[in-house]
Design brief:
2 domains; 3-stranded antiparallel beta sheet; two-stranded parallel sheet; alpha+beta; 5 helices
């Protein structure tokens, strides 16, 4: 895994993790990156300062609560999650089948979200099915 600092054309900066440098490049070339704050599709790597951990730095930092949002990016992600959960149907592990059925016209178009394994996600993208990863893990809903 590799972490990159990203910046959009509006100047919003976020950090994001990618499987590898080539995974970042593939997503960028395919237009699958967008700003978590404003949604802009013009996202590029920003200049990053190296992180050098020292014992003093590790002990002097007070950990912040992960349950509270503090940055604008975290607030934007929280708002995005709320919007998706309120306006889309959770289809769970049936996401690939449901997305493909809608793409082929076998199911009515609607907003959906769910879970998909890497191979199925790659097949959807290669077949031209419009999908995008969410920047959060969906809450698993039970029937």
């Amino acid at each position: 895994m590799i972490q990159y600092a990203l910046i959009c054309d509006e100047g919003h900066q976020v950090d994001s993790w990618f499987q590898s440098a080539s995974a970042f490049q593939t997503l960028s070339d395919a237009g699958h990156l967008s700003c978590a704050v404003c949604g802009s599709a013009e996202v590029r790597k920003a200049v990053m300062a190296p992180r050098v951990a020292t014992r003093q730095a590790e002990t002097s930092q007070t950990p912040r609560s992960l349950s509270k949002t503090s940055t604008e990016e975290e607030k934007a992600l929280q708002a995005l999650r709320k919007h998706v959960e309120q306006n889309a149907d959770y289809v769970g592990r049936e996401f690939a089948a449901e997305a493909r059925a809608m793409y082929l016209g076998a199911a009515p178009d609607r907003a959906i979200y769910g879970e998909v394994n890497r191979a199925d996600a790659k097949a959807l993208i290669e077949d031209g099915v419009p999908v995008a990863p969410l920047p959060f893990v969906p809450n698993r809903k039970t029937n």
